[in-house]
Structures are given as C-alpha cells and as structure tokens.
Amino acid sequence: MQPLDLFKCLSDETRLTLVALIYREGELCVCELTHALALSQPKVSRHLAQLRHCGLLGDRREGQWVYYGLEASLPGWVKTILEAAAGEQGTRLAAPLARLAAMGNRPERHLAMC
C-alpha cells in the first residue's frame, strides 16, 4: 500500500469513521455499523467495499453475518496512522460507540439488530 492510496481511501468522512470504529472494536458487522452511525445499509456496505478494495479491511463470514476487521497484512506505518486517526476521532466516535455499547454483547446484537 502506498501512502497516497491510504489517504485517498480515508479522505471520505464516512470511511474514516468506519475504519476508526473497526480499529477501536476489532471487528464489526454491517448491522452494527449501520446502527452505530445511523446510516443506511447500502451506504455502509458501499464504503466497506471500497475499504476492502483499498486493502484496509478484510472480512470473515459467520453464518449470515460478515464481520469486517483491519487487514492482517497491513504494514506497521499504516497501523500507526490508523491508531492516530482513531485517537483523533475520540469525540466524533463518542455517540457511535455509545450506540454500540447500548446494543449489549454480540449474541444479543444479532438478535436485536441483524
């Protein structure tokens, strides 16, 4: 991954917020992200697809759910930038993180949201 490609991928506010949330939480499914950001499923899925195409995110399937996490093979310099970006997003992430916390634990989230 080249620096220009990384910054192009993160230049959109929604994509930056998605990556910051996933960085903080480890992995999240689409339904968790739509609930946390109060955005439509198609919009979130489109941005997740772009982030996967950029090489920032990987996914894994568990039943009918697909979980997104940071791509394991990201270079250290990318992880450092994502850590800094997630830290700087602290106040912006407060409301989405509160909505995630209100969902309860992951099995309850599936029943309630997905």
Kindly report the CATH topology. Arc Repressor Mutant, subunit A
Going across the major beta sheet, what is the strand order? Answer: 1-3-2
How many strand segments?
Answer: 3
State the order of secondary-structure elements, H for helix, E for strand. Answer: HHEHHEEHHH
Q: How many strands, which pairing sense, and closed or not: the largest β-sheet?
A: 3 strands, antiparallel
Q: Which CATH class is shown? A: Mainly Alpha
Shape: globular
CATH architecture: Orthogonal Bundle
What is the residue-averaged pLDDT?
A: 88
Protein name: Metalloregulator ArsR/SmtB family transcription factor
Pfam families: HTH_5 (PF01022)
InterPro entries: ArsR-like_HTH (IPR011991), HTH_ArsR_DNA-bd_dom (IPR001845), HTH_MetalResp_TranReg (IPR051081), WH-like_DNA-bd_sf (IPR036388), WH_DNA-bd_sf (IPR036390)
Organism: Halomonas saccharevitans
Quick overview:
This protein is of the alpha+beta class and 114 residues long. It has helices at residues 3-9, 13-25, 30-37, 41-54, 76-88, 90-102, 106-113; strands spanning 27-29, 57-62, 65-70.
How is this structure best described in words?
- The structure is a single chain.
- The chain is an alpha+beta fold and 114 residues long.
- It has one domain: Arc Repressor Mutant, subunit A (Orthogonal Bundle), CATH 1.10.10.10.
- 67% of the residues lie in helices and 13% in strands.
- It is built from seven helices and three strands; from the N terminus they run H-H-E-H-H-E-E-H-H-H.
- It has a three-stranded antiparallel β-sheet with strand order 1-3-2.
- A hairpin with a 2-residue loop joins strand 2 and strand 3.
- Helix 2 crosses helix 5 and helix 3 crosses helix 4.
- It is globular, with a radius of gyration of 13 Å.
- The mean pLDDT is 88.
- This is Metalloregulator ArsR/SmtB family transcription factor.
- Keywords: Arsenical resistance, DNA-binding, Transcription, Transcription regulation.
